[in-house]
Amino acid sequence: EANDKMFERNYFGMMMVETGEADAFITGLYTKYSNTIKVAKEVIGIRPEYKHFGTMHILNSKKGTYFLADTLINRHPNAETLIDIAKLSEYTVRFFNHTPVMAMLSYSNFGADKEGSPVSVHEAVDYMQQNYPDLAIDGEMQVNFAMNREMRDAKYPFTRLKGKDVNTLIFPNLSSANSAYKLLQAMDTDSELIGPIQMGLNKPIHFTDFESSVRDIVNITAVAVIDAIVDKESSQMRRPLSKFQIVCIMLLWAALCYIVLISVERIDGPIILTLAISAALVFIPVIKSLKRG
Q1: d(C-alpha 136, C-alpha 99), whole Å
Q2: Total Cβ atoms within 10 A of residue 247
Q3: Quick check: pTM over 0.85?
Q4: What is the C-alpha to C-alpha distance for residues 225 and 274, in angstroms, rounded to an integer?
Q5: How far apart, in whole angstroms, are the C-alpha atoms of residue 120 and residue 78?
Q6: If you write DSSP's letter for every residue of 204-265 in order, what string do you get?
Q7: Each residue's pLDDT tens digit, 54-105
Q8: Is 195 helix (H, G, I), strand (E, B) or coil?
Q9: Which CA distances in Å does 47 have to 37, 51, 81, 218, 254?
Q10: Do 67 and 112 meet the contact criterion of CB atoms below 8 Å apart?
Q11: pLDDT digits (tens, 9 = 90+) for 165-191
Q12: What share of the chain is helix, strand, coil (3-state, %, to 5)?
């Protein structure tokens, strides 16, 4: 059975990452999400400190940068799942060098509704506030209060978010999260959405879908490269990379550059920034590893 599974692309690719033969894996363009998620949990597994994993989309807009979760994985999360999503989101936002200011969303505000999904969200907020007293997180709240600091501070001055602009939105279920990011994408063509960015698996496995444009694939490839570098740095600590690993990392970066150069009409600022960041994150660890070796 195991041998038969290796003829399926997701099993084969993820097993390469699991065994160290590849540094990252991107999938989803020609496969169903449900199958991809099942294989990822089976082959790669969820990080031991969590029971669930999720995904995040990053929205770059004129108003600012926003982080939306969970946009792909958990259909009907309970309080325990929402807690994991919140913790993973906090880690991921910091990974991208932002300080998380988190609103956990619902159709209810701060315990007004005592039934249904708002109860799970409220329980998750209580847990996060008790166990992470320095984290700016509150809810449950409607999205208009999350996005309007003045209105939120006037109506609910007791919140932990007072005086802060929210940059991280945790949705109560997959229907609301998935619909929200696709609505934003359709209505504001000047904004850019990056994702889905995987949170919580043991290795750098990332997803695309059949609607992905070339730019979407370039963005998620850049994220995968960065994730692979950070994963290698954290897992190997001061151990030098092998020649094979260095070659794999360089090939990943070269593939990113090739996709960019053949797919875009012109090299604009975001493209240059993406390549510069990925180059720094690739070459600095490689040079350090060669010196240690």
Answers
A1: 9
A2: 11
A3: no
A4: 11
A5: 6
A6: -EEE--TT--HHHHHHHHHHHHHHHHHHHHHHHTTPPPPHHHHHHHHHHHHHHHHHHHHH-S
A7: 999 999 888 899 999 999 999 999 999 999 999 999 999 998 889 999 999 9
A8: strand
A9: 14, 8, 14, 26, 29
A10: no
A11: 999 999 999 999 999 999 988 888 788
A12: 50, 15, 35
CA dist 57 to 128, 182, 194, Å? 21, 10, 6
Instruction: Give burial (CB, 10 Å; 0-12/13-18/19+) of 265.
Output: exposed
Query: How many helices (H) and strands (E) in the chain?
Result: 11, 8
Residue written as tokens 């879908």? 209
Which tokens hold the place of 170? 């945790």
Tokens found for residue 153: 């501070």
The two beta strands, 101-105 and 64-69, are: unpaired
Q: Where are the beta strands (DSSP E) in the chain?
A: 25-27, 54-61, 64-69, 101-105, 136-141, 168-170, 192-199, 205-207
The one-letter amino acid code at 145 reads F
| Look-up of token digits 């669930």 | 52
Name residue 74's amino acid. Answer: N
Structure tokens at 103: 């609103």
